[in-house]
Amino acid sequence: MRFSKGFFPTVKEVPSDAIIPSHQLMIRAGLIRPLGAGIFSFLPIGYAVMKNVMQIIREEMDAIGGQEFCLPALNPVELWEESDRVRSFGDTMFHVKNRALVLAPTHEEVITSIARNHIRSYKDLPQIWYQIQTKFRNEPRPKSGVLRGRQFNMKDSYSLDASQEGLDNSYDLHAEAYKKIYSRCGLHFFIVGASSGAMGGSGSQEFMVESEAGEDTVALCDSCHYAANVEVASSGVAPAIRTKESHAIEEIFTPNIKTIDQLAEFLKVGTDRCAKSLVYIGDGKPVLIFMMGNDQLNETKLRTALGTDARAAEPEELSSLTGADAGSIGPIGLKANFTIIADKRLEGANGLISGANKNDYHIRNIDFNRDVKIGSYYDLRTVEQGEPCLKCSKPLRIVKGIELGHIFKLGTKYSVSMKANFLDDQGKEQPIIMGSYGIGLERIIACFIEQHHDASGIIWSKSIAPYDIHLICVNANSETVVAKSEELYRMLTETHISVLYDDRTNVTPGFKFNDADLLGMPLQVIVGEKNLKNNQIELKERLTGKRWTVAVDQLVGEVKNRVFGS
RNA sequence: CGGGGUGUAGCUCAGCCUGGCUAGAGCGCUUGCUUUGGGAGCAAGAAGUCGUAGGUUCGAAUCCUAUCACCCCGACCA
Hints:
The structure is a single chain. With 566 residues, the protein is of the alpha+beta class. The protein has three domains: 265 residues, 2-Layer Sandwich (BirA Bifunctional Protein, domain 2); 129 residues, YbaK protein (Alpha-Beta Complex); 98 residues, Anticodon-binding domain (Rossmann fold). 27% of the residues lie in helices and 28% in strands. The strands form eight sheets. Strands 3, 7, 8, 9, 10, 11, 12, 21 and 24 form a nine-stranded mixed β-sheet that branches. It has a five-stranded mixed β-sheet with strand order 16-14-15-17-20, covered by helices on one side. Helix 1 packs across helix 11, helix 2 runs antiparallel to helix 6 and helix 2 crosses helix 11. The radius of gyration is 30 Å and the shape is globular. The protein starts with 20 loop residues before the first helix and ends with a helix. The chain binds one RNA strand of 78 nucleotides through helix 4, helix 13 and helix 14.
């Protein structure tokens, strides 16, 4: 493509409302333009990258036996009522005003509908069905450029199996395909165990990249590569000590002591001797939760432990249920009947200090085995930076991550609610066992740029670069330089190398060099007067900035090696 | 949905607090000449309903009210 004929709207100035590097560079290099909040146009160079990513995805999906569909984005709302997801998506789903239609945020329903109409027998299974298609989600707050948009492209696939083992196999195939896809795109990623959450099902993993712009928080071990969303992460942090002797409990006057830190300071003890009390309401019933010292309660873990949603109690509820305000609540002398649970770290501990359920008083020497009826101990705490890894004891890092993909073992949630059944080899009707697997295309591109850029611009990998090489005609006024540039453009193009050819006559060399660095093709071929006099052409590797020259007649061979070599 | 911020030329922004002549700058754009290895020089030129609507005033980009859009923080995020 000739630069002079193409549409490459590069901009020098950083757009004012782009904060993260990928957003700034995608606009500056002319990949995208915003149309509304969370809505972007992909311009030719951005779409070229998108198509390359799609190609990699298609190859890897086809390699595991996937079949590509193109499903409608417009769906009858009735379909979504069958799975009860009109309610569960709520305001996140776009509804069409003048028809009973919705814009699909994902496609489990459509897939299940096709399956129930056509899958009859276990002999029709397994199937892997995928598509690359636009999704619509009414995000309350779009942000970070294309990372969180209201309309975006997703590769979504669905596995249909006759057995749990079949699902496990389809799931593993996807996990392997996803690793290949991200690796081929040039992304540094990691895999985390995730909570299967409201999707239901038995297993789920997220593919993530580490990034300050991320919306998830992850505990990572750099040594053994343990990785988990903090919603589910655990560490090998030491439990509370149990001393040999358990002294009798004793009430102590602690005026105006509200926090664990104040309490530990006042009594000159470590925070690990303090049992922090939290009151939650789950299913309308009060729950008293004990955490060691300043450990933070993890509400996702609490929800899992209780098997129900729970909320923190209001201040008025605290005093009516316990007899004290926050800061003086404890296990002994409660007014109401509580379910009492505690973090595993406190299991069987004694010599603990906790509130007396009387303002300005605490109780010491509490023995959880002797003095408190603990319903159960659960892992309820939020892992913190530097705690030892559960597997290898090396310190954990807590980082922000961007979710690039998510794989789910759905099970029979949709096949049961939507009646997608098959006859097994006993002639018995069974619900199809499903899996669901998603990859965000825009996120791959934005995350790639987050990981591969410098002060001058983007640094594409060969695999997804919009063009293989950037050919620069430095001196557009020199007939010999222009003639040689034109000749090389023709020769390289004939060799099936995709060339972005900067043939502009009206800009200075510096302008072309800066555009080339901004656009970020892996290899630059620079045709200039000085080198051409010596029958030489200059090459520049974008990643390293390394420059070298080759003889004119060896140029095409050298470029071919670079582009097609490993 | 709560909190904060911003809307002035294609882009980045100044002017607003303290109302007052014909609304500015840099970059970009058009034309001509010069220039040509890291975002060129000179000259001439085009380009803005100051987000929108209403109000106050002799007079509003500027003050007031409403509204819309966008950005940031939070809530939310199968």
